[in-house]
Design brief:
six-stranded antiparallel barrel
Length: 461
């Protein structure tokens, strides 16, 4: 009996424990998470707007050293990375066979010379006989023709000898055509090489003229190529030394497009200084073409321009954005009047469409017939359209608003920044944005926000 009571007590205790655990877990799951804001402020600084690309490092100029005669390599005097001077011997080709041919050619010259000398003596004797009338004209002219043939054969023999001598004294010695550094060596002692035309000759060495300046062949997308100009400044890094930023300048933009996987790009050639010697041919460069640089400007983290509050209703957002879009030149009394009229219009016509129409017509009288910038409601043309309200500068002609399309760069872009006002409430401000480096964005017409807590993002605790 006691045993039964003990078992029942144990089961009851376990059940109570399980209930407590379940209630605790349920409470944790259903308890709302506390939200707070992470703030930032406007700061003065510099921004560099860039276009990114990748490319491959190469030498500015290089020379391939070819074999000018066929034969077997006897000695190689240089190796990879050897610094060479113009005229320096790089390798030699075996000339044993050529020397035998040279002896044969010399013998041919001696034979041709003897034949010529004998025929010359014959012509001199025949001329004496011809002058005295003892020799026919035909025989004399035949002797002269034979002398011309012997002379030509002598010249031919001399040319053959000179050719072989040149191969022995020049072509057998492979020399550097420039001052530079050996990038590649394609031969070893004992290897056979082929000389002749460029298409058939063996490439023995590749020599770079100068490694103190390198060249980058960058691929730039067709969407960005209009931003690239000759002489434009460039910064880049290489994976071998990611902590170092190198500089260069655009040498040329090649106009022939290349297509790969339906993507169109253009080659841009960049010259880069390499006095440090850290850049090597074949390295991959991560490139930033500098489009624009500005110093001592007001900046804000770009994330702040993307923020939109989730704790406000669409109507509340619209009202705050309307207030933010009121011209800065308005007095506080005029702003209060405009807001009161905005509230009245929404009260009379609560629909979004009707409210939008009234904002266009009723408020125009307040501003002397002009449309209030930024008073067109929330971003996207309706409630909840997003946190970044954009407004393009427009020109007015004959009472009609027309988009200023003369130059996209001249269009003024305005966006919204949210902040906490002096009463601790959410407020919005319209600012003009300029260049950006993706992390920071230039802002102007934002002096009223100096020192204020601008909302960067929501933190969930």
């Amino acid at each position: 009996m006691r045993r039964q009571k003990s078992v029942i007590s144990l089961v009851a205790a376990c059940a109570c424990t399980a209930i407590v655990v379940l209630v605790s877990c349920s409470t944790k799951k259903t308890s709302p998470k506390k939200q707070s804001y992470e703030f930032t402020t406007l700061t003065r600084g510099s921004i560099v707007s860039t276009v990114s690309s990748t490319g491959t490092l190469a030498v500015v100029s290089s020379v391939d050293v070819l074999a000018e005669m066929s034969g077997r390599i006897e000695k190689v005097y240089v190796d990879y990375n050897s610094h060479v001077k113009k005229g320096q011997i790089l390798a030699t080709i075996n000339t044993d066979l050529l020397k035998l041919q040279e002896k044969s050619a010399k013998a041919s010259v001696d034979k041709a010379q003897a034949t010529y000398d004998l025929q010359l003596l014959t012509v001199q004797n025949d001329k004496t006989l011809f002058d005295k009338g003892f020799l026919a004209e035909f025989d004399y002219k035949s002797a002269l023709a034979a002398l011309s043939i012997d002379k030509a054969e002598l010249e031919s023999a001399k040319v053959s000898l000179e050719e072989i001598t040149t191969e022995i004294n020049q072509y057998a010695y492979i020399t550097s055509p420039i001052d530079g550094i050996v990038l590649s060596r394609e031969i070893d002692a004992g290897a056979s090489v082929t000389g002749g035309s460029v298409s058939s000759s063996t490439t023995l060495f590749t020599i770079a003229k100068n490694l103190e300046q390198m060249e980058i062949e960058a691929e730039v997308d067709e969407l960005d190529i209009s931003s690239i100009k000759k002489g434009q400044k460039v910064t880049f890094t290489v994976e071998a030394d990611p902590g170092v930023e190198f500089r260069g300048v655009v040498k040329e933009v090649r106009l022939v497009p290349e297509t790969s996987d339906n993507l169109v790009y253009y080659y841009v050639i960049i010259l880069a200084d390499n006095k440090s010697g850290k850049l090597l041919p074949g390295m991959t460069a991560n490139i930033n073409f500098i489009k624009q640089e500005k110093d001592d400007i007001l900046t804000v983290p770009s994330a702040a321009l993307r923020f939109t509050p989730s704790t406000l209703t669409d109507a509340e957002k619209s009202r705050l954005l309307f207030a933010a879009g009121l011209p800065s030149g308005m007095s506080q009394e005029e702003k209060n009047t405009a807001l009161a009229q905005y509230d009245e219009q929404l009260k009379n016509k609560p629909s979004a469409k009707a409210g939008s129409e009234n904002k266009e017509s009723g408020l125009s009288s307040l501003m002397g017939g002009g449309r209030i910038p930024g008073a067109g409601g929330p971003p996207g043309g309706g409630p909840g359209g997003g946190g970044m309200h954009e407004q393009r500068q427009r020109t007015t002609q004959n009472g009609q608003n027309k988009e200023n399309t003369t130059d996209a760069a001249d269009a003024v872009t305005r966006k919204t920044l949210w902040y906490i006002d002096s009463n601790g409430k959410l407020a919005a401000a319209m600012v003009q944005v300029g260049i950006s480096d993706s992390l920071k964005t230039e802002v102007s017409d934002a002096d009223a926000l100096l020192g204020k807590n601008i909302i960067l993002k929501v933190k969930v605790e």
